[in-house]
């Protein structure tokens, strides 16, 4: 088993006043040649947007874009005609494909919105743009993994054009939990939302990340009451990036 450990305070940081953003991988003005991606996982941004502020209309293409609100409400509009509000307990996916324009704003005038913005390389270029949004609170279970994303249209959670699986987990202190990978070619990036966990000889605290690959499974121990996001993605980049 191979691992790479990213402490929370080693992430890139940008404070624009209205936007406070932490970048696990290279993004915008934060460029780190040693942290450009983890397999097909290209972006993991931890964003806080001030009251009533947001990202104006801008383009994307050939990327699977996932948003997971942690606090507050995020308003989304796009060139496909979608107008939606994504709340805590929901997940949004946008397959940019051949091209889409969109905007994201904090719908609330009194509280900030905090959310994870995640980009995954699709397995192929030029797919038809699409939008989807689902509640993930309904399947929430303590001390179990909750699948929120997969490659399958009829599976739990949303789906994307990539052999990737995302799971959320809430674990009480002292619980051991084993994660088994879906594909031997995949790796897993574990991101701690709250609390702390131990994997092997590494203890991960809030907003720490650990990449794991060349293994079929691994076990994690909840050092405290903990919330985590587990992102399983192919380690080999798509052929169009080689």
Tally of distinct domains: 1
Low-confidence stretches: none
Shape: globular
CATH architecture: Sandwich
Helix content: under 10%
Radius of gyration: 17 Å
> What is the H/E string?
EEEEEEEEEEEEEEEEEEEEEE
CATH fold label: Jelly Rolls
Can you list the strand order of the major beta sheet? 1-20-17-22-15-13-14
Under CATH, the homologous superfamily reads Jelly Rolls
Strand content: over 45%
Q: Summed up, what is this model?
A:
With 242 residues, the chain is an all-beta fold.
List keywords for this structure.
242 residues, mainly beta, Jelly Rolls, seven-stranded mixed sheet, 22 strands, 0% helix, 54% strand
Question: How are the elements arranged and paired?
Answer:
Elements (H helix, E strand, L loop, with lengths): L1 E5 L5 E4 L3 E5 L17 E9 L4 E7 L3 E8 L1 E6 L4 E5 L2 E6 L4 E7 L6 E8 L9 E6 L9 E6 L7 E2 L5 E7 L4 E5 L5 E9 L2 E3 L2 E3 L4 E5 L3 E6 L3 E9 L8
Parallel strand pairs: 13-14
Antiparallel strand pairs: 1-20, 2-3, 3-4, 4-11, 5-10, 6-9, 6-11, 7-8, 7-10, 9-12, 13-15, 15-22, 16-21, 17-20, 17-22, 18-19, 18-21
What can you see in these coordinates?
Residues 11-120 form the Pirin N-terminal domain. Keywords: Dioxygenase, Iron, Metal-binding, Oxidoreductase. Belongs to the pirin family. By secondary structure, this protein is mainly β. The protein has one domain (2-241): Sandwich (Jelly Rolls). Helices cover 0% and strands 54% of the residues. The chain has strands at residues 2-6, 12-15, 19-23, 41-49, 54-60, 64-71, 73-78, 83-87, 90-95, 100-106, 113-120, 130-135, 145-150, 158-159, 165-171, 176-180, 186-194, 197-199, 202-204, 209-213, 217-222, 226-234. The strands form four sheets. A seven-stranded mixed sheet has the order 1-20-17-22-15-13-14, with no helix packed on it. Strand 2 (12-15) and strand 3 form a beta hairpin. The model has no long low-confidence stretch (mean pLDDT 96).
């Amino acid at each position: 088993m191979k691992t790479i450990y990213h402490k929370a305070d080693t992430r890139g940081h940008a404070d624009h006043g209205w936007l406070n953003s932490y970048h696990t991988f290279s993004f915008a003005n934060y460029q780190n040649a040693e942290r450009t991606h983890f397999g097909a996982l290209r972006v993991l941004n931890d964003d806080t947007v001030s009251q009533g502020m947001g990202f104006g209309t801008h383009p994307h293409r050939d990327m699977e874009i996932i948003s997971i609100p942690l606090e507050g409400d995020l308003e989304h509009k796009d060139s496909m005609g979608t107008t939606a509000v994504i709340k805590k307990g929901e997940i949004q996916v946008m397959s940019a494909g051949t091209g889409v324009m969109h905007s994201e704003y904090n719908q609330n005038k009194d509280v900030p919105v905090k959310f994870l913005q995640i980009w995954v390389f699709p397995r192929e270029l030029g797919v038809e743009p699409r939008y989807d949004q689902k509640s993930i609170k309904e399947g929430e279970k303590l001390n179990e993994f909750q699948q929120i994303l997969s490659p399958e249209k009829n599976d739990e959670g949303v789906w994307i054009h990539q052999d990737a699986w995302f799971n959320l987990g809430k674990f009480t202190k002292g619980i051991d939990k084993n994660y088994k990978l879906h594909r031997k070619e995949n790796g897993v990036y574990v991101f701690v939302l709250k609390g702390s966990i131990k994997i092997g000889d590494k203890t991960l605290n809030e907003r720490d990340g650990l990449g794991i690959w060349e293994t079929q499974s691994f076990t994690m121990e909840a050092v405290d009451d903990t919330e985590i996001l587990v992102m399983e993605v192919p380690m080999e980049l798509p052929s169009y990036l080689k």
